[in-house]
Structure formats: C-alpha cells, structure tokens
C-alpha cells in the first residue's frame, strides 16, 4: 500500500524540526511540494533547505504540486473552501497515483503542525473517501503559536484559565480574556475595544522575525506601521498574536 507521512516542519526555523520529523524525512521516497505562487517562494525555499540539510541519502524525488487558486469566498466561505479542497484532493490523488509506486512512501511537509489551520489531513481523508487505498501517519511539529509564546517568554494561559485560538475574521470586538489570533489579513486587533495587552510576532523563527509587546492602545499603531512596511517590502506577511485582557487582581 502507498503511504504518506504528513510531517510538521515547525513554523519558520529549521531548528524547530523534531527528531521524529528528521527520521520521517529520511524514510520518504518522494516529497510532494506545493507551489503557492511567487509570494510564498520563501516558504518553498525553507522546505527545500530542510531537505538538503536533514535528508542523508540525497536520492529522493521531489514532485511539485501547482496548487489551484481558491475562488473569492464572497458570502459562502465554507462553500468556497470546500470547492478548493475538492480540487486539491483531485490534484493530490492524481500525483499519488502517478508519482508514488505501490509500497512507496511519500511525504508532505506541513508548515508548523498539521492540526492547526491546515487542510492537509482533511484532503487526505477526502482522497481515501474516494476509495483510493492509502495509509498515512502524522508527525507533529512546532506551531506558530508555540513559537510566539517562546519568543515572548510567556505562558499562553493564566492559571486554570482557557485560551481561545481564533482567526482575524472571527475576532470579536470584545474577545475572550486570552485569545490567540492567526490568519489575520485585516489587522483585526485594531477593532478591539477594552483594555488588552498584545504579544505580536511576525515571520517567527526566521531571520526577519519582528516582535512587539505592550498595551494594545499604546502599541497598535506601531504594529500597524510595521505590518504595512514589512508587507510592502516582502509582498506578504505572516503574523500571530496573543490578546490578553488586562485585569487587576488576576494573574
Ligand atoms: C494556514 S495557517 C498555518 C498554521 C500552521 N499550521 C501552524 O502550525 O502554525 C497560517 C497562519 O499561521 C500563522 N503563522 C504561521 N507561521 C508563522 C510565523 N512564522 N510567524 C508568525 N505567524 C505565523 C499566521 O497567523 C498565518 O496567517
């Protein structure tokens, strides 16, 4: 049976790779590398660097998957994502069929960890649901959330309290007391009311990493400026932040 290793590669720094991930890299015959266009060329390069650095026998094959573009979501976000996943599943199934021999092992290198805002596992389940015979295994990686906490030297939760992980699109103007925000294309923190602290990180784990922490009302202007400048310079931005409600008397 064909097998796919879904390997979390950490969110930005090749040193985030676990020993288990390195062992998995060395088992794979074929690496399937998604190509998401020019703006993400730097991310593609990190995957290539990881293979060159950690795979001992350099006789593996790489196959590039040109990822289909996602249609504008409009009002039907879930519908647009579902259509996109269907196209991706079809494209991957075709590649697994044609590029991976029976009994061979392929690998997908997933940014951060596959369990967090990543569709790889859903796509594999879709392929299997079509009747395609495929085994797969998941190797966890360091998420951008863990990288953020480590770089700011903070615990995500307060003692005995929950933490919400959400997206910029879903961030409320009065968020949970402790909320981690990802996939924020629109500076959702700027519409937050109330007294919050923010721990913000962009390009975490990379040489271009930027960190800012402070009271939201005092640093949000600076974050907006840094985001704008970085985006103009690089053409894209990847940032994550923790919002923490300021409350006296709570730890
Ligand atoms: C599609 S999600 C992938 C998350 C990934 N699976 C993980 O485990 O972190 C992409 C979002 O993750 C966050 N992200 C990923 N890598 C990051 C990094 N190096 N620095 C800051 N944020 C990052 C950003 O919020 C970005 O919009």
UniProtKB/TrEMBL annotation:
<dbReference type="InterPro" id="IPR000878">
    <property type="entry name" value="4pyrrol_Mease"/>
</dbReference>
<comment type="pathway">
    <text>Cofactor biosynthesis; adenosylcobalamin biosynthesis.</text>
</comment>
<keyword id="KW-0169">Cobalamin biosynthesis</keyword>
<dbReference type="InterPro" id="IPR035996">
    <property type="entry name" value="4pyrrol_Methylase_sf"/>
</dbReference>
<protein>
    <recommendedName>
        <fullName>Precorrin-6A synthase [deacetylating]</fullName>
        <ecNumber>2.1.1.152</ecNumber>
    </recommendedName>
</protein>
<keyword id="KW-0949">S-adenosyl-L-methionine</keyword>
<dbReference type="GO" id="GO:0009236">
    <property type="term" value="P:cobalamin biosynthetic process"/>
</dbReference>
<dbReference type="InterPro" id="IPR014777">
    <property type="entry name" value="4pyrrole_Mease_sub1"/>
</dbReference>
<keyword id="KW-0808">Transferase</keyword>
<dbReference type="Pfam" id="PF00590">
    <property type="entry name" value="TP_methylase"/>
</dbReference>
<dbReference type="GO" id="GO:0043819">
    <property type="term" value="F:precorrin-6A synthase (deacetylating) activity"/>
</dbReference>
<dbReference type="GO" id="GO:0032259">
    <property type="term" value="P:methylation"/>
</dbReference>
<feature type="domain" description="Tetrapyrrole methylase">
    <location>
        <begin position="3"/>
        <end position="219"/>
    </location>
</feature>
<dbReference type="InterPro" id="IPR012797">
    <property type="entry name" value="CobF"/>
</dbReference>
<keyword id="KW-0489">Methyltransferase</keyword>
<dbReference type="InterPro" id="IPR014776">
    <property type="entry name" value="4pyrrole_Mease_sub2"/>
</dbReference>
